[in-house]
Amino acid sequence: MKFKADEIASVIQKEIETYRGQIETSEVGRVLEVGDGIARVYGLSGAMAGEMVEFPNGVRGQVFNLEENSVGVIILGDHLSIAEGDEVRTTGALLSVPVGPAMIGRVVDPLGNPLDGKGPVLATETRPLETIAPGIAGRQPVKEPLQTGIKAVDAMTPIGRGQRELIIGDRKTGKTAVAIDAILNQKGTGVICVYVACGQRASSVASVVEVLRKHGAMEYTIVVSSPASDPAPLQYIAPYSGASMAEYFMYRGQHTLVVYDDLTRQAQAYRQLSLLVRRPPGREAYPGDVFYCHSRLLERSAKLSNELGGGSMTALPIIETLEGEVSAYIPTNVISITDGQIYLEPNLFFAGIRPAINVGISVSRVGGNAQTKAMKKVAGGLRLDLASFRELEAFAQLGTELDKATQGRLDRGYRMVELLKQPQYEPLHFADQVVSIYAGTKGYFDTIPVNLVLEAEKELLRFMREQKTELRDAITNSKALDDASEASLKQALLDFLAKWAETHKTVAK
Hints:
Blueprint: H1 5-17, E1 28-35, E2 38-42, E3 51-54, E4 60-66, E5 70-76, E6 87-94, E7 96-99, E8 107-108, E9 125-128, H2 151-156, E10 166-169, H3 175-184, E11 192-198, H4 202-214, E12 221-226, H5 232-250, E13 255-261, H6 263-276, H7 290-298, E14 312-320, H8 329-337, E15 340-344, H9 346-350, E16 363-364, H10 373-379, H11 382-396, H12 404-419, H13 430-441, H14 453-467, H15 469-478, H16 483-503, H17 505-508
Parallel strand pairs: 8-12, 10-14, 10-15, 11-12, 11-13, 13-14
Antiparallel strand pairs: 1-2, 1-6, 2-5, 3-4, 3-6, 4-5, 7-9, 15-16
Helix pairs in contact: 5-6, 7-8, 10-13, 11-12, 12-13, 14-16
């Protein structure tokens, strides 16, 4: 093989021409003490808050506390491999995570490292963990519905694209199930979903991933997992990491849904870190800025203005209460930041009413703005009807004689409660919800025994899909229930009732 001297000369000449003398500088400090995911470092006098630092074994850390003579660093990895006296280098960069389409369908840790055994994540872009939320001028009002597929939510506490709706309740009341149903219902809508599991059992996260995979939802979902076995620093940054991954798509004009499951665990991890770096404790031993910890995260959810591309990021933060104590510190903080809450009650859950949504306490501050015209029309008085039914039910328990009209309202109330029940991981199409709620509120189920209401609803929806396809498609496409559609729906319901009576005549006898 011969060398071509002129080629080598031209390359060297080009290198000399484009050479720019650059000195790479990085401050070097030394670890004073290390333990519990925290390191105190001496000698990083120029370090910035939130800056990324590197330990000798490749473990990364984030500057957390700036003190007079030292810097408190949270260690994002194995703190046992770091010893006193180790060198620490500043990087001059903020902590960033990989983002982009390559992340979709993957299960990653809060730093973007894969956990699903499918090889490295081939993301070409990164995004800072913390970014400033869009201001008022950069947003537009929440008006576009985000269907969750859950009748009780879409009818009474509707969620819009860009909204932050809190899911709150005791442990084991179905909070995660509501959020997962919302993710499953985004299939085919173009919404990218991010599920952040923070402080959960690793087995719970694995079962959630399996459900998403089984229903084909991993095709548009990113799972960020920081299980209970992870050190507190990773649990603390997990929600910010998920928000950054969703923001990438939002600023490209796409719609995203982020589930933070759950922020109670993140607050506890933050409390642990703050107490270890000796920040003064406040109420319930949380640091004074725990409100800001959640507000700067949730404010990043928005419906962007058309100038910024019109993308959206909807947040479903989850908070766990103890014994229904909604007035505790973290629950009240997050309630005041969000645009409404879905409150799940253990008593309803154990009574078999699932999803166990307490209609009285649950609210959406966006309200009817985030509903389609058809849903607004059929579900308008549903909340009040259910509230008056609960009062009547309590009154009827006294054993007093009831007049016919009151008894009729009670009977319809029982049927509506049955109708709002829904099996797990079976989100309903918008048109099916409209038909179902219309039939219930207009009394078409009044002649059907309470224990057969759910069976009748299934039959009705099958009947609509198979024999009234045009009507169902008309409701789906127009998203409204005009006079002609309503008349057709009434006739369809009468046809169905006649058919139902015919098939159940033998049972009735």
